[in-house]
Amino acid sequence: MAKRNQRKTKSRIVSAAWKLFYEQGYEDTTIEEIIEASGTSKGSFYHYFEGKDALLGSLAYMMDEKYEELEPGISEDSDCYEVLLHLNRELMIMIEESINRELLTELYSTQLTTRGEKPLLDHDRTYYRLLRKIISRGRENEQLTRELGVSEMVRYYAMCERALLYEWCLRKGEYSLSEEAEKKLPLMLQSLKA
Hints:
about 190 residues; Tetracycline Repressor, domain 2; mainly alpha; single chain; Arc Repressor Mutant, subunit A; globular
């Protein structure tokens, strides 16, 4: 129970921070505003984060919250390929509507240069767990190819998703991310179909 409360507190801080970053910009958002918006304390904030910069890496966990929200709606008899497309579509819509593109760009650049923790590659995240589950089921049901291993397909899916996000950031959001992903991801994932 204590672990769940800790996750909820951290989640409230992350959600409040990213909402403020989106509305006000990263530079114009203070730690005090994040603490107030999250309904937590200064001690709680510093328990989870060394400072505002540490919140950049928390985007991965915010994405995980979206996957946790979507997971109960995934039927066991759903076509796994279609489920992957659906998850991506929902994530891209969430990013477009609530994630500041400049911050996403900053996150990607820090992931390339940091020597420490790389949250986008943390395979214990909900994101990777859910992908492994869907892809494993898709292979068992002969909806997805058996020529590639589960880990290899998960890695490929994540790579395709990052490519879409990176290109959108590179092009400074000049087009709809969700519409572009809806057109391009099926082409990218075609090789995963059985």
